[in-house]
């Protein structure tokens, strides 16, 4: 591992600055006082399409194998980012004079030896079937089939000591996306059946659930992740819930079958990392404060192949934001602002915002010095003239002052049409709660999120760099820059809303 340091300022520059400071005022020498210098013009011209495209394609290349959080691939990508920061000329702002802040992920998953059977059908968990949560369980019980599990169907069956099988059915009526409705329904229906005496629950996909099973099921095979000691590190001993593909219905509903399971949980830790770099401010007082530009470098890694492609590159999620953050580094390095600019690439965001949860709890600068967080999440897809600013309306807004600055920057720059629906608490995706600004907002630090929202290739191997609108990526990057430049140069830090309270 290399440790990178920024060379100190040259003595000539320091001497020149000292001489300028010590010169007597012109008025004291009998000459008219000169007018105060106007604030330096912004440096948005430093943000170039060619740089963004080069960095996007490099980080989203198969070479980094999808940058899965907590793997060597994520660490290699993080080393690449740190090398770019060093080459640009930023100061390392991680631990011990480096660009790195390492932290541990705790993973809880089923062992590879875990097995289940239904009749004569052998099931390898998370290969032939998905175990909804990693649990320790030993089950040997008759399997009863209850159709779609309506109250009338369930009432006909004695479930005490039995495994209960049903076909998923239903659709959301409260605004949830189907994916979130599906997982919530499986969880809640299983809990009801287990409370009624079932020792295991088997859920078979219908046609709509099968699409979610195919696309999102790979996430369950990895188990659960958390920071050590977090709620997802608990090893549970309880009745299991097994989720099967639609094709299994033909044999699951056969009478007289036995369900067996021997599920064993293991838990272990390994490292992830935040990359932290800094451009010092120019104002003797304000340079002690920081405008934090936030993103994450990880994605989904190597998973189930789709059309022959098993590397989930995450070009938009979040290669676009990483390329944008490198461009912001260049702009601030070439022309620093009055406040310092702090850049944090958070590790393991896809594991549950782990890097931002860790950094916000243990920042490498004084937490009170962070005046605002500008978080960047997926900024290269969808209509070329549209974008969104999350945290811009209640209850998600925690600084009307910061939001006004961001909206003014949009008008001064790209003039995107802003989608406001995704920031509403009723939006089915709950997008506000799924990126790295959230831990900072919960601490009362003014925080907003720039995004161009989800698309059909989200969390699939089709999220490739060739699909990115580079011109749009550049436009959003300049918008973020103009916001950060304004915050970094204004006399007062953005005011926090005193009555901020999230809905969950």
From TrEMBL:
Q: Name one Pfam family in it.
A: Peptidase_M28
- Name all Peptidase M28 domain ranges: 274-478
**Keyword annotations from UniProtKB, A to Z:** Signal
Keyword Cytoplasm on this protein? no
What range does the record give for the signal peptide?
1-27
Q: Which domain of life is it from?
A: Bacteria
Q: Which InterPro entries match?
A: M28_fam, PA_dom_sf, Peptidase_M28
Q: Which PANTHER family match?
A: METALLOPEPTIDASE M28 FAMILY MEMBER (PTHR12147), PEPTIDASE M28 DOMAIN-CONTAINING PROTEIN (PTHR12147:SF26)
Query: What is the protein name stated in its UniProt record?
Result: Peptidase M28 domain-containing protein
Upper lineage is: Bacteria, Pseudomonadati, Bacteroidota, Cytophagia, Cytophagales
